[in-house]
């Protein structure tokens, strides 16, 4: 039986981490090549007494669509025996492989495993990658993960975050790197509802923006190399908006990180 | 607030009109070309302070406002700088033809300091309330229109008006205004709004006595509702600060205007025009006197009645915040 904490972590893996595959396919030519001309439905799921949970990808000629929830008609499915098993695997605390249904779709299987492993390598990195495009990709993944992760915790009823969201009028919180709008992500919060999105929020200036001056500065904070306060003092990190909201957002970022790392 | 009945506290904070009178006296000391005119209202409008100090440079035209503005235009033609003081209702309506043709049309250097504006002459009733003057005066070509927030800002506005060539209309209240500024040492510029509080949830744009109310409302909204309101003192209605308005549209998405004036043609309309012309969308609400002749009562009671006091602003901000204006209200399609 999954605990509330297991469920929060699971929502993050299924609805915030696994959707990042789409970003990787769209940003990395080598990974995109592995799915070239491929078609099928690929699911990642976990069994649970309350019903199966999961996320699946619909792949059409190499193009990904990510859909929340399991799919009974998967061509290939990585099925974990329980929610904690899925969480532990993606947090890197267990190497226990899931049951692979449809393993005979070898092309899809190898491509899927490659992209999942690549994603795990990028998200699990403790030092910045060497290549510039890979640095950008890690930042983009993290920004998206944080926005989606906070929104998922709200939707799952996480006490602190749902209380925060409930009290919030219509506000947008954004993560950005100066001069690199393509890396941006944001979360819109309104009276208990929340919605994470990638890219820049263009309707207006966000209520609060956490802006990094360079990709390296962003990696410094996101990978826990730099102290956030020090980064703010040295203006590697610029908080655009009331400082108390920066502290709040920082707290929720750490919360998402702790669930994603299984700590 | 209230009338000209002094309390001990009030005596330490001169009424807005008295600030005007004193500043004009100071200006008069250094600039001999300044002359004063009034139409039997020197005492009420406080230009009487100037009259006492410079009796040879002050002219009481009697109850003949139209003549007074024509005389002022002639004086300006001769190189003098007339400061003309009467009630707002007489400046903007009784003598409008003279203001229009004799002064504005000729772009003459006449400064009109109109007192007892808005609902500030509360007990005197509807005939003495002046809730149309901003609309009327801002449609006069060449004329600059200033609505100071308090006595200190009136001092800045009077000096600014003297330093600006051409006709200027300054609208002030009867009696005491709540203090917004501690001293004149802030960046007052005609045509530039002054930001008093910062916030990104919405912007409250106010003028005149409503500026103080807006600040108090913003404090309540912050502590009770957790809303961060930007407060702009839009002391100059014409030329309006387009830049500050467009910045507010972009950064706060919601704008509420507050004025002691009819909602037709005043500050709200001026702000609304900028927004519409920009093509940018935002949630917008105008607070002021509706399309009606105002009722009689104390100024503070009337402000409450027409929801341009602190509580009225708070309530209306809460309604504005609830407005939907995003195209996408699907909260589930976030992957």
Automatic annotation (TrEMBL), chain A:
The lineage of its organism: Bacteria, Bacillati, Bacillota, Clostridia, Lachnospirales. This is Uncharacterized protein. It comes from Vallitalea longa. It comes from the Bacteria.
From TrEMBL, chain B:
It comes from the Bacteria. Pfam families: Transket_pyr, Transketolase_C. Residues 14-180 form the Transketolase-like pyrimidine-binding domain. Coiled coil: none annotated. The keyword rRNA processing does not apply. Keywords: Thiamine pyrophosphate. Its cofactor is thiamine diphosphate. Belongs to the transketolase family. PANTHER family: PYRUVATE DEHYDROGENASE E1 COMPONENT, TRANSKETOLASE-LIKE PYRIMIDINE-BINDING DOMAIN-CONTAINING PROTEIN. This is Transketolase.
């Amino acid at each position: 039986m999954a605990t509330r904490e297991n469920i929060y972590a699971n929502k993050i893996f299924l609805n915030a981490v696994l959707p990042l595959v789409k970003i990787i396919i769209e940003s990395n030519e080598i990974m995109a090549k592995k799915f070239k001309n491929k078609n099928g439905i690929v699911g990642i799921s976990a069994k649970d007494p309350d019903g199966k949970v999961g996320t699946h990808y619909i792949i059409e000629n190499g193009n990904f669509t990510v859909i929340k929830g399991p799919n009974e008609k998967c061509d290939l499915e990585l099925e974990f025996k329980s929610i904690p098993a899925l969480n532990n695997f993606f947090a890197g605390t267990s190497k226990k492989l899931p049951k692979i249904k449809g393993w005979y779709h070898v092309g899809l299987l190898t491509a899927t495993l490659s992209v999942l492993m690549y994603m795990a390598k990028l998200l699990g990195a403790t030092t910045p990658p060497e290549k510039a495009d890979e640095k950008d990709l890690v930042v983009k993944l993290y920004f998206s993960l944080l926005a989606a992760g906070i929104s998922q915790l709200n939707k799952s009823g996480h006490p602190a975050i749902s209380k925060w969201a409930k009290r919030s009028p219509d506000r947008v919180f954004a993560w950005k790197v100066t001069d690199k709008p393509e890396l941006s992500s944001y979360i819109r919060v309104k009276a208990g509802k929340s919605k994470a999105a990638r890219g820049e929020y263009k309707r207006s200036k966000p209520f609060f923006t956490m802006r990094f001056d360079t990709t390296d500065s962003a990696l410094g904070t996101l990978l826990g190399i730099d102290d956030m306060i020090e980064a703010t003092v040295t203006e590697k990190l610029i908080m655009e908006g009331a400082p108390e909201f920066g502290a709040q957002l920082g707290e929720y970022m750490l919360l998402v990180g702790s669930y994603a790392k299984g700590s | 607030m209230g009338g000209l009945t002094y309390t001990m506290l009030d005596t330490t904070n001169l009424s807005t009109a008295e600030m005007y009178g004193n500043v004009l006296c100071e200006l008069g000391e250094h600039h001999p070309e300044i002359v004063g005119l009034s139409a039997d209202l020197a005492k009420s409008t406080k230009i009487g302070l100037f009259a006492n100090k410079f009796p040879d440079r002050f002219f009481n035209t009697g109850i003949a406002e139209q003549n007074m503005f024509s005389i002022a235009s002639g004086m300006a033609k001769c190189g003098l700088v007339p400061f003309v003081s009467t009630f707002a209702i007489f400046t903007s309506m009784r003598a409008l033809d003279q203001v229009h043709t004799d002064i504005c049309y000729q772009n003459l250097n006449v400064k009109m300091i109109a007192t007892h504006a808005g609902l500030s002459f509360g007990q005197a009733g509807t005939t003495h309330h002046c809730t149309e003057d901003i609309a009327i005066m801002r449609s006069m070509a060449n004329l600059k229109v200033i609505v100071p927030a308090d006595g200190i800002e009136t001092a800045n506005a009077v000096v600014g008006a003297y330093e600006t060539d051409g006709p200027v209309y300054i609208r002030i209240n009867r009696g005491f205004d709540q203090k917004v500024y501690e001293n004149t040492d802030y960046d007052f510029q005609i045509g530039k709004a002054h930001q008093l509080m910062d916030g990104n949830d919405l912007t409250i744009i106010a003028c005149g006595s409503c500026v103080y109310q807006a600040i108090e409302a913003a404090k309540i909204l912050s502590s009770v509702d957790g809303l961060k309101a930007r407060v702009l003192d839009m002391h100059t209605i014409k030329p309006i600060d387009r830049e500050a308005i467009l910045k507010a549209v972009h950064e706060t998405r919601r704008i509420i205007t507050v004025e002691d004036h009819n909602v037709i043609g005043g500050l709200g309309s001026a702000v609304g025009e900028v927004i519409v012309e920009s093509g940018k969308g935002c949630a917008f609400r105008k607070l002021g006197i509706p399309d009606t002749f105002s009722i009689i009562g104390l100024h503070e009671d009337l402000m409450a009645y027409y929801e341009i006091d602190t509580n009225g602003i708070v309530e209306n901000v809460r309604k504005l915040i609830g407005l939907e204006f995003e195209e996408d209200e699907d909260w589930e399609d976030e992957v």
